[in-house]
Amino acid sequence: MGLRIFNTMGRELQDFEPLQGKKVGMYGCGPTVYTYAHIGNLRAYVFQDTLVRTLRWLGYDVTHVMNITDVGHLSGDDDTGEDKMVKSAQERGKSVLEIAEFYTKAFFTDTERLNINRPTVICKATEHIADMIQLIERIEKNGYTYFAGGNLYFDVTKFPAYGKLARIKLEDLQAGARVDIDENKRNPHDFVLWFTKSKFENQALVWDSPWGTGYPGWHIECSAMSMKYLGEQFEIHTGGIDHIPIHHTNEIAQSESATGKQWVKYWMHNEFLILDKEKMSKSSGKFLTLQTLIDAGYDPLDYRYFLLSGHYRSQLQFNYDALNTSKASRKSLMEKIWNLREKAEPKALAVSSPGVAGHLNAFRSAMEDDLNTPRALAEVYMVLKDTSLSPEEMLSLIAEFDTVLGLRLLEEQKKADVLPADIVAKVEKLIQERTDAKKNKDWARADAIRAELLAMNIILEDTKDGTKWKLQ
Ligand code: AMP
Ligand code: ZN
Question: Which atom of ligand 1 is found nearest the CA of 242?
Fold first, then answer.
């Protein structure tokens, strides 16, 4: 059948056809690193990861670019409110760069725990100011800008296609627009490309530019960095649905007014994760992080499983009952897989077997159908139920599916979840005692503990990150 995806531009399912051969350029808006990512944000990154995994599994050569916003993002996407980075730095008594570094690290710790593959290119806004200035100069040269009150603005009336992605017409925008607090704007939806005067005095990070010393607007970073790494035209741009009306709309206006041609072919947006019927948002301060879930006894992969059990274009209501269901499903799935592994190990897939080919096709057509992960996940259970398959075939199929699902279905060790909590606590206490014994060079005690654990069927492995254990 071939891959079909829902293109927000046009609001329809379309056959996926790269601009050239099998090469795919994909840009996903990354985090603004002024605080921890909440589990709603992480939905956007699990979605990006699932998309990249699927494309690669289908044989595409994907370059995945993700930005890190460490400058210029105000609390309102439309240039209103406070500077998120500066506010966070002030509240925490740190510099903006310290804040950025700390939360960037925290972000990648979370993505690793969710088994999200690292993008091919990770680019920080503050390291690409020269690229942004060059792009703004092109936009200016083409006549789309004006300078007012010390800032350089994009004039949306000069770009007739403005609002096409969000399906908003400029006339409607103007008629219905709220009174904007920025008096320098000629039209309410004009936006800043470069600030030299803002309402924030002592802006922490500033750079020289043809328009004066200042800093870039938020939207320009994505236009500049995506084109730097992917060229002036590329295949896919992703983000959460909140980015459609302003951020992505403005990114298109900037990029296409600079180059005079279509910028992105397919726009893909994930729906929200909802908490108590409200969109989970960082700025409200009330949000759940991945660490909150871990502290409550969940494995990050329980959350990944929960996300995959919904389609990326459907709203997903988060609550602990739903997460418990995912945790229990994943546990029983892992138990089935561990039982199989006592009989066989996965091998290279022999697609010649009709049973194997049938499941592979079903899984492929689920993913090709606009990334239908609930159906793809169900196919794992179909495999486990199919008595015509050998244990080896089952495991081989599951290993293949897992390259797309990223649930570590075969990597995970049989351990804590299948043992009662008091035994797990005892094992961990003994391991700590052994570590202490080794520190004190009490080798006899260390060996005795290893033997005691072995008698409980626990095998130890000493790694650079400490002692790991698994069931024999
Ligand atoms: P930010 O760090 O605020 O720029 O957001 C990072 C990503 O998370 C963006 O792609 C947003 O569209 C997305 N996002 C924000 N809130 C949610 C939510 N509640 N559910 C799903 N995605 C979200
Ligand atoms: Zn962006």
Answer: 12
